[in-house]
């Protein structure tokens, strides 16, 4: 019995080919563990001048874990080649996502990661929240009031209740002095 | 008598009661919001505990854990979206009940079954943890070494669909745990001359990064799913109806306790075993899967029976039974406490103050759970578009609070990207965390054993306790392989 067009298309879309996430992931981990075992460990783990037992070496556990990853990565790679995994329904939700949505998320992350000291906790919180609300396409004005209100409230909670000295913002301090 | 007064002094504080209530409330709310997990809530709450007393801090986290267990069932019943994997079993009968206009009855059944199971589990914790800790006092470094080896075998059971990927994640977690100064020789390991890494990778940025940030990234790299509104309707549960399921609830609780006390088995399997046992013995077995009160009761009793019992190996032996207890283990360490037999020896009043708080949390769950049922539509209707920017803000401030350092923010975001990549490629993050926590314990006990024996390896096989753990480790590995082959055969 022949498969109908609809069925054959469905089967083709259901499974990945040889270049599937598992074999690629296995290959990636394999390369990473090789680099780790033969470059990173010898260069970035210092050995003491004298050791009582080889198992007491500072390199023992990283090497053990590195070899474990290397062997399993090889198994994963072979497994991926022999048994290509099936596509998940969730993959469909990840297609056709507007680029701007992802760029705005990255920008919000960059504000927190790079400008947290400069903008301060409240400033970076406001900027990042506004960007993330924009990324979701929110248009109501009251939502953007929340983007200001929440960073202020949460920052004050951290500073005054939890005694965490969150940064005020070097940029604002400089502007005030100016 | 002196000990009792000390326990009461530690426990009877308004802070503790507020922490329990807040914890259970946060847990139920977070568990009730689809996409947010109790694990994420516990990770996010951890920085808030820095300034708290150890008992208050642990009770807050345990409260979130217990609240989250129940909260997960709310979405399972109302919108067929289990808030936690363990609640997947609850939807089998809970969702059909909601569709038949009996949502309120299903939610009340889930709540009261959860409370009874939680109470039974807590009593088991109080009785067995001290007993097990007494036995563990005879453990030396070799016995602990094998205990850690046995604990490492739980990685397979928390690996999700792929044991290979889980083991790789655990290996990576172990590698990350070795960053910093070597504990014996003081030499640098993988620090790349960065002074921020000399004192090991901070636990909280790693935790928040792995469990909270991926949810945020995943949301913004997927199309916006429509927001599902929920409704709580129908008649409530009568005492007669609940009494009819009480036997099932008690049986499910005992199953949960037994499974929870074994590291790595987890609430999901307890829920399904309890459910299938209830179905097997029920006179209404034909109604299971179509909206049976007993089905909801069995599933919830099984999964909540695990909650207290998973703390047995944590408190008595210092080994985590699942991801959340691994985080709670980290919380103990942050507060300068090491769970295990020594905790019972040196901080007995603290342990019993914790037990009191854990018992109280079961009763708090009744009030909070009832309030959640009444006001649930408000809680669940907060759209993720508003919620996730706030979650991200909490993540950032929480990571910064650890060392007042922006390095930790970068570290957390890096682990967030790693966690996101793990999610996308089907690698479970839990084994990574277990590897990160158990790796240093493994190394520490291995080294201490070798230093004591002056390098003689026969010390690892010196007594019956060591042999018990060796056999348990071998059996656990063999069992994991057997399950793997069965799953592979079924796939083929």
UniProtKB/TrEMBL annotation, chain A:
What range(s) does the DUF1468 domain occupy?
Answer: 26-167
Q: By its UniProt entry, which InterPro entries does this protein fall under?
A: DUF1468 (IPR009936)
Keyword Magnesium among record annotations: no
Q: Does the keyword Transmembrane apply?
A: yes
- Positions of transmembrane segments: 24-45, 65-83, 103-135, 141-162
Which keywords label this protein? Membrane, Transmembrane, Transmembrane helix
Query: What is the protein name stated in its UniProt record?
Result: Tricarboxylic transport membrane protein
What is the originating organism of this protein?
Answer: Marinobacter nauticus (Marinobacter hydrocarbonoclasticus)
From TrEMBL, chain B:
Q: Which InterPro entries match?
A: DUF112_TM (IPR002823)
Under Pfam families, the record lists: TctA
Top-rank taxon = Bacteria
Name of the protein in its database record: Tripartite tricarboxylate transporter TctA family
Tell me which species this is from.
Marinobacter nauticus
């Amino acid at each position: 019995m022949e498969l109908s067009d609809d069925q054959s298309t469905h089967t083709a879309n259901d499974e990945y080919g040889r270049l599937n996430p598992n074999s690629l992931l296995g290959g990636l981990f394999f390369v990473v563990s090789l680099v780790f075992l033969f470059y990173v460990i010898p260069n970035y783990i210092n050995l003491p001048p004298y050791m009582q037992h080889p198992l007491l070496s500072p390199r023992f556990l990283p090497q053990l874990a590195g070899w474990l990853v290397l062997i399993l990565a090889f198994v994963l790679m072979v497994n991926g080649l022999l048994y290509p995994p099936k596509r998940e329904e969730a993959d469909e939700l990840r297609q056709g996502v507007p680029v701007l949505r992802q760029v705005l998320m990255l920008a919000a992350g960059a504000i927190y990661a790079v400008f947290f000291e400069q903008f301060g906790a409240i400033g970076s919180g406001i900027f990042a929240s506004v960007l993330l609300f924009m990324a979701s396409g929110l248009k109501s004005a009251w939502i953007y009031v929340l983007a200001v209100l929440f960073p202020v409230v949460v920052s004050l909670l951290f500073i005054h209740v939890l005694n965490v000295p969150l940064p005020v913002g070097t940029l604002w301090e400089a502007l005030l002095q100016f | 008598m002196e000990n009792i007064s000390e326990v009461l002094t530690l426990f009877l504080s308004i802070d503790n009661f507020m922490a329990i209530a807040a914890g259970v409330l946060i847990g139920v709310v977070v568990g009730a919001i689809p996409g947010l997990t109790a694990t994420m809530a516990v990770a996010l709450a951890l920085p808030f505990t820095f300034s708290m007393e150890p008992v208050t801090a642990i009770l807050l986290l345990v409260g979130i854990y217990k609240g989250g267990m129940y909260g997960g069932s709310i979405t399972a019943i109302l919108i067929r979206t289990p808030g936690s994997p363990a609640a997947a079993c609850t939807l089998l009968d809970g969702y059909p009940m909601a569709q038949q206009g009996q949502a309120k009855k299903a939610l009340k059944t889930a709540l009261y079954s959860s409370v009874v199971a939680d109470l039974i589990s807590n009593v088991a914790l109080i009785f067995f943890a001290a007993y097990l800790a007494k036995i563990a006092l005879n453990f030396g470094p070799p016995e602990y070494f094998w205990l850690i080896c046995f604990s490492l075998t739980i990685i397979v059971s928390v690996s999700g669909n792929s044991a290979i990927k889980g083991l790789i994640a655990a290996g990576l977690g172990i590698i990350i745990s070795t960053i910093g100064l070597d504990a014996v020789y003081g030499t640098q390991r993988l620090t790349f001359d960065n002074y921020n890494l000399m004192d090991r990778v901070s636990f909280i940025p790693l935790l928040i990064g792995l469990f909270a940030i991926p949810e945020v990234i995943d949301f913004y790299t997927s199309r916006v799913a429509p927001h599902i509104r929920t409704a709580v309707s129908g008649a409530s549960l009568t005492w007669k109806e609940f009494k009819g399921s009480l036997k099932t609830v008690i049986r499910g609780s005992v199953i949960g306790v037994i499974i929870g006390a074994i590291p790595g088995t987890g609430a999901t399997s307890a829920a399904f075993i309890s459910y299938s046992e209830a179905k097997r013995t029920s006179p209404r077995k034909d109604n299971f899967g179509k909206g049976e009160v007993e089905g909801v009761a069995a599933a919830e009793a099984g999964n909540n029976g695990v909650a207290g019992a998973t703390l047995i190996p944590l408190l008595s032996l210092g080994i985590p039974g699942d991801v959340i207890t691994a985080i709670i283990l980290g919380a103990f360490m942050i507060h300068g406490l090491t769970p295990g037999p020594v905790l019972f020896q040196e901080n007995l009043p603290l342990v019993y103050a914790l037990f009191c708080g854990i018992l109280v949390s079961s009763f708090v769950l009744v009030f909070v759970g009832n309030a959640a049922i009444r006001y649930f539509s408000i809680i669940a209707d907060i759209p993720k578009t508003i919620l996730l920017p706030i979650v991200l803000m909490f993540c950032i401030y929480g990571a910064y609070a650890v060392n007042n350092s922006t390095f930790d923010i970068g570290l957390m975001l890096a682990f967030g990207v790693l966690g996101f990549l793990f999610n996308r490629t089907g690698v479970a993050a839990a084994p990574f965390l277990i590897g990160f926590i158990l790796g240093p314990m493994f190394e520490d006990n291995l080294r201490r054993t070798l230093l004591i024996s002056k390098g003689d390896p026969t010390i690892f096989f010196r007594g019956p306790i060591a042999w018990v753990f060796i056999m348990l480790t071998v059996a656990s590995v063999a069992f994991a392989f057997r399950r793997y082959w069965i799953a592979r055969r079924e796939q083929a």
